[in-house]
Amino acid sequence: MNLIVAVDKNWAIGKNNKMMWSIPGDMRFFREKTTGNVVVMGRKTLESFPGGAPLKNRINIVLTKERGYRAPGAEVVHSMEELKSLLGKYDKEEIFVIGGESVYRQLLPDCDTAYVTKIDHVYEADTYFPNLDEMTEWELAEVSEEQTSFDLEYVFTKYERKNEGRIREN
């Protein structure tokens, strides 16, 4: 399973249920990676999209504890067990966890690849992604050339879970 996220220098990902930046190149990268695949998100992430609508050309799965929650165009699940059962229908390589913070934290142990856009700026934030640089089970595998959007500099990185002692499921 994969995850995709954009973070600032402190691994911040948002404030007040919103991203703190708008980088066209990062949005294009996100679309290229996730289109035609399965995206897994929390309710607040779905509600942060324009019109609260699921992403087009993807299978959208929303994890929420709210039992009566409906999201037309998306599959809604209410527990990790229900989510994992549903995800079993898909190839792991086609699944992308896209947020928010609690969904990332719950599913990080199940992910083998993390696509992280690192923005060279510090924002005031209230939600964070775990710092993969501090986690021994993750290693930085790729870093792009530096990109620029207006006055922001950023790079696309790819982290991979180390295989030592890990039994991979197929």
Name the descriptors.
alpha/beta, Dihydrofolate Reductase, subunit A, 9-stranded mixed sheet, two-stranded antiparallel ribbon, 11 strands
Span from first to last CA? 11 Å
Assess the beta-strand content as a share of residues. 25-35%
The CATH architecture can be given as 3-Layer(aba) Sandwich
| Count of domains | 1
Which fold name is given in CATH as the topology? Dihydrofolate Reductase, subunit A
Largest sheet: 9 strands, mixed
Mean pLDDT: 95
CATH class: Alpha Beta
Query: What is the helix fraction of residues, given as a range?
Result: 10-25%
Shape: globular
Number of helices: 4
Helix-strand makeup class:
alpha/beta
Strand count: 11
Poorly predicted segments:
none
Radius of gyration: 16 Å
CATH H-level superfamily: Dihydrofolate Reductase, subunit A
The helix/strand order is EEHEHEEHEHEEEEE
